[in-house]
Amino acid sequence: MMEASNAFEIYNLNVWIEEKHILKDIDNLQIPKNKIFSIMGPSGSGKSTFLKVLNRILELKNRVKISGVVKLNGEDIFKMDPVQLRRNVGIVFQQPNPFYHMSIFDNIAYALKANGFVKNKRELEERVIEALIKANLYDEVKDRLKKPASVLSGGQQQRLVIARALALKPQVLLLDEPTSQIDVVGARKIEELLLNLKEQLTIVLVSHIPQQAARISDYAALLYDGRLIEWGPSERIFTHPQNELTEKFVAGRL
Amino acid sequence: MVRPIDLAFQKLEYILKEMSIEALKSMDLLTYFKRQQTVKDLKEISDRLRKLKEEAGTLILEIIVRYQPAATDLRFVKSSLEITYDLYRISRYSYDIALALEDANLSLEECLDEDIQSNIERVKNMLNLTIKAIVKRSVELATEIKEMDQSIDEAYKEYFHKALEFKGGKCAVANLLIMRYLERIADHCSYIADEILFIIKGAK
Amino acid sequence: MKDKLIFLFTLICTLIIFSPFLWLVLDLIIKGLNTIIAYGIDFLIAEPPLPGDGLGGIGTVLEGTLFMVLIASLISIPISLSTAVYVVMNERSKFAFLFRFLTESLLEFPTIIIGISVFIIFAKGLKLGLNGITAAIALSIIMIPYTTIQAIENMKQSRDKYLETGYALGLSDSNVIKLIVSEGREGVITGILIGMAKIFGETAPLLFTTVTSFNIFLKNLFSPVSAIPVLIFEYAFSPYENWHDVAWGASLTLMFIVIVLFTLTRFLIRRKI
């Protein structure tokens, strides 16, 4: 029964990059399905590294050593085909990075075509529009789908990138500080979008702003110096954390 | 490191301290009951505490909107709001006691038996401890206060049953009322103790 | 007032420094145009004249130059691109380091030595003889480091931007490489144009790999050819007045081609930024 309710389960995870121990004994962490799970921590605490382990993007770097078990729907991700895993677990980075030289439409269509996910032009169009609607961007761009992505504002670009990931219909969406480069209004729209999206998928969000994590996440975890300090329902983490470091971090004393 | 929120907390703590001193003073005035003068003084104190409570409320709203407190900070803010209300209620009950005595045209010396007198002292002592507990944020003191509250509750119950048997006149009624108000004051001390425990430990 | 004086002073200094260059360019334009106008637009297709026999064109050597640059580009572009892809995708490997080191040292290599080496190895050793292909091999060796380094730099940028994104979208290795190359394509094209501009004017290696008979058009891929810079070199030092005039016209043509290529690269680079 437990496996049905958790997207990710992490046991005894250790990560070294260039011989440096980055993630240390992250054990017994469960990321429930259809929830927003925030990973908090000061810079250098290993948040982004942790996120990149979940869809095995981290392994693209040379000289990475990973030990431990990470299960997605009860299946060990290190025994899966990474390409298949990544189609299931999308990621969005801090800096909006649409394909600037492609049109808004092609930004989303590209991976669908390259991965052979669509049979014909009509299906492609449907999937692109569906993704734009899901990412709450369609109304703003429907008249200029052929314009290059660079005409969009930062916040729109980030939603385009989210749409690009959503087009592959992933089960999990990982986001690495997705609003830190975006203006306030744009950031708020992304937060609202994430709240809507959790009905369809599981969201793991890295955030260094505790207030943002408090606003939108159902669960929160604190990483500090590569260790998992504490995790649990946001309600507890933000009102009465059990660990002193968490207390200091959420209260802005760290 | 002083965070911006800490400066606002200093203001809030200052208000709490002032309210504590005033609440204590209200009970002291009862001991030296001087009829109308005391009633008037106590009314003033309880009015002042109500204003301070409102001031604290405004400050707390400002703290929430400006600093978005979390964890201990958040619990302190929430509890401060409760504590200011408790302190105001304590001063209000002191005033009620004075009012009851004055309306019945009684002086304390006339009716007060030893029982009541010792209970007044116990509750005063309890309030003293409560104020110490607020300042020191002490788990031990808070626990002690809660134990004291239980014994006051029992004392009240005992007195109540005794009064039912008693066929005396004015004094019996006035004393029962005083006992009842003392019991309420003790309750508010105990609520404050709960809040202190909440600030320190989080979940109740 | 003081500001104006300083401005005037710097302007004069700049003019003094640049005056030899300006004079050179003006002289070239005037003399070159003289020739081209006198002979007409046929200058670009006609054969060069015999000594003392009036004006002629540079058709043969222009054809030779275009042919050699084309062949050199056909050799260089795939080599440069694949080297760049390898270096960018395997930056930490020893081979990538070696490739990069080799291309960078090739950039500093005296081109005349490249000419001699190609002459010894290809013309003599492999008996290719003196023809457009041999010359193009020499030119491609000169072109490769320019295009490769430019391609590496640009593809590195698009790699840093899109490598993780590409894989995160579930793309296969080859699709990720395609994505990175296509996102860096303007930089890659810039590199190719810079390399072409460089070899258009290259003379030293051609002295060893081409012939100095300037009056033959191409008959097949392996017929002997010559090039504009070699014609300029030979004609400028000849005692014949009419050859001097043709050399001026040829110089202007060459400069025009190189300027067009550089303008194109500037335009591409600016668009990228």
Report on this model:
The complex is a heterotrimer of chains A (254), B (204) and C (273). Chain A is α/β, with parallel strands linked by helices. Chain A has 11 helices and 11 strands. Chain A is 37% helix and 26% strand. In chain A, the strands form 2 sheets. Chain A has a 6-stranded mixed β-sheet with strand order 7-8-9-4-10-11, with helices on both faces. In chain A, strands 1, 2, 3, 5 and 6 form a 5-stranded antiparallel β-sheet that branches. Chain B is mainly α. Chain B has a single domain (4-201), classed as Phosphate transport system protein phou homolog 2, domain 2 (Methane Monooxygenase Hydroxylase, Chain G, domain 1), CATH 1.20.58. Chain C has a domain at 67-210 and 220-227: MetI-like fold (Orthogonal Bundle). Chain C is globular and about 70 Å long. Chains in contact: A-B, A-C. Chain A binds chain C through residues 52, 55, 57, 60, 62-63, 82-84, 86-87, 90-91, 93, 97, 99-101, 110-111, 114-115, 164-165, 168, and chain C through 92, 161-165, 167-172, 175, 178-179, 182-183.
Keywords:
heterotrimer; B: about 200 residues; mainly alpha; Methane Monooxygenase Hydroxylase, Chain G, domain 1; about 90% helix; elongated; C: about 270 residues; MetI-like fold
Please name the CATH architecture of the domain at 67-210 and 220-227 in chain C. Answer: Orthogonal Bundle
Number of helices of chain C: 10
Tell me the name of the CATH class of the domain at 67-210 and 220-227 in chain C.
Mainly Alpha
What percentage of the residues of chain C does DSSP assign to strands (E)? Answer: under 5%
SSE pattern of chain A:
HEEEEHEEHEHHHHEHEHEEHH
Q: What's the quick description here?
A:
Helices cover 37% and strands 26% of the residues of chain A. With 254 residues, chain A is of the alpha/beta class.
